[in-house]
């Protein structure tokens, strides 16, 4: 059996979720190839070849692939699948966009956001905002799977797979890329960060969110997250949203400030190693999952925390 | 312009799902059911397009049990013109739903389909993309803004890192993300009016589509519970604990 992993990247660098997806793929088969679909992405393909356990890397390049258009990626992957029994993609917004399209073209189910490989046709995935775990067995000839990267360890470096060019498909004739507004940040990326500091509706404004959350995140070297309420209100950009329908994170340390802990939020962070909650309401549901809860107004608690961290040499 | 809006009846988003003791699934007996929140956003978008004079007809479609008529009545009360229930007592997988919707689209020929990005029960986030593939239509998923005009749609999409804007040729599939709009509550007069709007029923089996499940559910279990935490006295106490836990 051979497995194809579709790399997560931004044309310039390979994302760690690819390494984690390779680990899931290696649980299916030892014959794992990586597809890098992009434009000007040669360095990404070379980085993919260095992942331990990878057999070879396929590189497909065109403008439409560089823009991540689902139709273009599908047109590359579907013909390649005659040589593979499964295709695994990290469950990022990109992967979630094209992977089901590939599945339908192959007339197979998609198995969404797996967190465990039981065997080559049996997988575990969360449903109902993570309130249940479903074990499913697939009867399809080819498996199309998205992988919740936080549930798998990253495959190491040390591989030396060769890079081969492959056809770029016929693009996306009915879709025109207009533009992309990306938030640039020097902070670690939310999805893979070791520490995440998140703010909620309690912040009350974008200025307050930045005044309170940014310095604490800087001090901890943390990525920044937010609740849906904070994002909806415009306190934080939309890709900061942690939760059932936002990003799923599982850092070593998750600090929730002024977040109540709705099921949809918990779905995105309850697998963090240590959870800290700062909330003035002692009955907030976030305290049910917090390892360390501080019942306090964040306006006093956060400055005190900054001082205590400084005193501890942070 | 005719807009088709698929809507799913699911567990209400405020209810915490409980796993059945025999591990066969989630207990839905006597649980409050509602329209999937992302589908509400899709209906709202379609109705706004009609109010703007861009759309001329909004047709809501649901695949599910007889009770899904209530979900369709909600869509009608929000402003959809008519509704179709494709009746089935199984909970079809996204691929089967996409095939049933493709069959209805063959009959209805809408110019655009606006649907939810994700149903909050199965959390698949797959049906819209699959439907687009089956029809060979372009897809604009995770929409946070939609500008419809004759022949094309300009859609702002929520992607990792920000917003991507694409322009798709119609007919196309658009899936709604959370921030596309804030769905209205249906007013009492509109709820009453909705009772008189047409709601057609069809048997899923009559559409001649293969809906056999591809995935067998082996079991459904509860996720591991987190161990009980503690309340700390103050920030200094918190830092001491975090050091002991080895995360600082
Ligand atoms: C379809 C759907 C999908 C969703 N997806 C997501 C998702 O992915 N992620 C997500 O987060 N949510 C999601 N939600 C929303 C979710 O249900 C909650 O509404 C949201 O998480 C609440 O955000 P919050 O905790 O910031 O706000 P609130 O629930 O309003 O909580 C604010 C908290 O701040 C505390 N507080 C107030 N002032 C202070 C102060 N001065 N100091 C300390 N504490 C203070 C309050 O006690 C309260 O607990 C979704 C909802 C739906 C319907
Ligand atoms: N049974 C159904 N009936 C109507 N629409 C559905 C059904 N299942 C899924 N959908 C549509 O597909 C979207 C995504 O669902 P899913 O792929 O299951 O997460 C939903 O928001 C609906 O718009």
UniProtKB/TrEMBL annotation, chain A:
The keyword Transit peptide does not apply. SMART domains: ETF. SUPFAM superfamilies: Adenine nucleotide alpha hydrolases-like, DHS-like NAD/FAD-binding domain. It holds the Pfam family ETF. InterPro entries: DHS-like_NAD/FAD-binding_dom, ETF_a/b_N, ETF_a/FixB, ETF_alpha_N, ETF_asu_C, ETF_asu_C_CS, Rossmann-like_a/b/a_fold. Residues 3-181 form the Electron transfer flavoprotein alpha/beta-subunit N-terminal domain. Belongs to the ETF alpha-subunit/FixB family. This is Electron transfer flavoprotein subunit alpha/FixB family protein.
């Amino acid at each position: 059996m051979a497995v194809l992993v579709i790399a997560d990247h931004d044309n310039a660098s390979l994302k760690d979720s690819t390494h984690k997806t390779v680990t899931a793929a290696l649980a299916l088969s030892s014959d794992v190839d990586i597809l890098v679909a992009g434009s000007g992405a040669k360095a990404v393909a070379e980085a993919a070849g260095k992942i331990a356990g990878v057999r070879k890397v396929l590189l497909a390049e065109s403008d439409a692939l560089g823009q991540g258009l689902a139709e273009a990626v599908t047109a590359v992957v579907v013909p390649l699948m005659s040589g593979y029994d499964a295709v695994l993609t990290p469950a990022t917004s990109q992967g979630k966009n094209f992977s089901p399209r590939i599945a339908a073209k192959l007339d197979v189910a998609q198995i969404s956001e797996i967190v465990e490989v039981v065997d080559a046709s049996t997988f575990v995935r969360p449903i109902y905002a993570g309130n249940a775990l479903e074990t499913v067995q697939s009867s399809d000839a080819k498996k199309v799977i998205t992988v919740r990267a936080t549930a798998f360890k990253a495959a190491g470096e040390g591989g030396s797979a060769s890079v081969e060019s492959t056809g770029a498909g016929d693009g996306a004739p009915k879709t025109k890329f207009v533009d992309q507004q990306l938030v640039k940040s020097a902070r670690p990326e939310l999805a893979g960060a070791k520490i995440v500091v998140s703010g909620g509706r309690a912040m009350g404004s974008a200025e307050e969110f930045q005044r309170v959350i940014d310095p604490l995140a800087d001090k901890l070297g943390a990525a920044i997250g937010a609740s849906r309420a904070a994002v909806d209100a415009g306190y934080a950009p939309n890709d900061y949203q942690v939760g059932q329908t936002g990003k799923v994170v599982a850092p070593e340390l998750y600090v929730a400030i002024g977040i109540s802990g709705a099921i949809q939020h918990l779905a995105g962070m309850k697998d963090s190693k240590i959870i800290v909650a700062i909330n003035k309401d002692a009955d907030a549901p976030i305290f049910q999952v917090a390892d360390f809860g501080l019942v306090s107004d964040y306006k006093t608690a956060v400055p005190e925390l900054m001082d205590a961290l400084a005193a501890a040499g942070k | 312009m005719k807009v088709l809006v698929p809507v799913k009846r699911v567990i209400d988003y405020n209810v915490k799902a409980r796993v059945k003791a025999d591990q066969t699934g989630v207990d839905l007996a006597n649980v409050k059911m509602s329209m999937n929140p992302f589908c509400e956003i899709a209906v709202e978008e379609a109705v706004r397009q009609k109010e703007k004079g861009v759309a001329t007809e909004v047709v809501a479609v649901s695949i599910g049990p007889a009770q899904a008529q209530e979900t369709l009545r909600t869509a009608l009360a929000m402003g959809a013109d008519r509704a179709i229930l494709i009746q089935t007592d199984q909970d079809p997988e996204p691929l089967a739903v996409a095939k049933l919707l493709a069959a209805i689209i063959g009959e209805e020929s809408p110019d655009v389909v606006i649907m939810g990005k994700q149903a909050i029960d199965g959390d698949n986030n797959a049906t819209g993309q699959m439907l687009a593939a089956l029809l060979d239509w372009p897809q604009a998923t995770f929409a946070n803004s939609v500008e419809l005009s004759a022949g094309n749609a300009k859609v702002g999409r929520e992607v990792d890192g920000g917003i991507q804007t694409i322009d798709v040729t119609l007919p196309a599939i658009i899936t709604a993300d959370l921030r596309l709009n804030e769905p209205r509550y249906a007013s009492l007069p509109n709820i009453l009016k909705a009772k008189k709007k047409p709601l057609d029923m069809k048997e899923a089996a009559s559409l001649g589509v293969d809906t056999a499940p591809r995935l067998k559910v082996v079991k459904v279990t509860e996720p591991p519970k987190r161990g009980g935490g503690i309340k700390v006295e103050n920030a200094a106490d918190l830092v001491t604990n975090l050091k002991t836990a080895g995360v600082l």
